[in-house]
Amino acid sequence: MEGESRQTNVLSPQNVVTLANLASGVGALLLSVSAVLHDDPMRLYQAALWIVLATVLDAVDGKLARMTGTASPLGAQLDSLADAVTFGVAPVVVASTLVQLAGDDFGIHMHPRLLVVAPIIYACCAVLRLARFNVDHAEADQLRGHDRFRGLPTPGAAGVPVGLTLAYFGIVDTKLFDLTPSTLWAVQSVILTLTPFLILAMAMLMVSRVPYPHFFSWMTRSTSPVNTLAKFVVVLGLLLLEPEIALLAAALLFAFVPPLLMVPRRLRAARRRRSGSGPGGGGA
Description:
This protein is mainly α. It is 74% helix and 2% strand. The protein has one domain. Helix 5 packs antiparallel against helix 6 and helix 5 packs parallel to helix 7. The relative contact order is 0.11.
């Protein structure tokens, strides 16, 4: 009976979805290798789309586990291992490969070690972020969702290098702006130049203590079905209008707005501490 129970847990629907998430990440890595071998940067666009698919699957597996009541420690560990590959390794391999393949065309010659060190630091911070999450929630109820996270979640961090990759290609066909060839060249050059530095920023935010909301929980958390539907309509509308630019904008906002909102709160707290420790502010 115990063996049958374990087999059922392994083959539960959310674990199959998690393995599909992992398969998408591996597919993105293989496409990156193929892009180098065939000198075809366009394959990196396809690789980035695989990671977008993995992000959707990552959101679905948790919801599925809670809806079916089949969440388990095995599923939690499997999810972390899959995320380590799909969101901790694949996104920076895709983005760094794009910089290496396309950089020469724009006269971008970065320090060669930067394109090695930045992805390594990102991957290490992603694994540390996942390990910290597992430790912090080791005793938590597996059937409960998470409304907030400490540090940038790995799918959110992955959204920035993936969004940069998609925007690099998507800006060519955008109907949102009327870009001249020189402006297009400049925008793509900026994307390639900023990529390794934004990768390092995502690494630091993952291991920070900045509180981040759970995006999909926020999307579905509402007492009114109309409000929930309206959120999805707005998001889908933006994605249909300019998907690559919308994904990059959403990823940057999600990554940088919470730490920016913390700055005034920290300043107010510092002023209160200074005023409290001033003359007459307290004593033994």
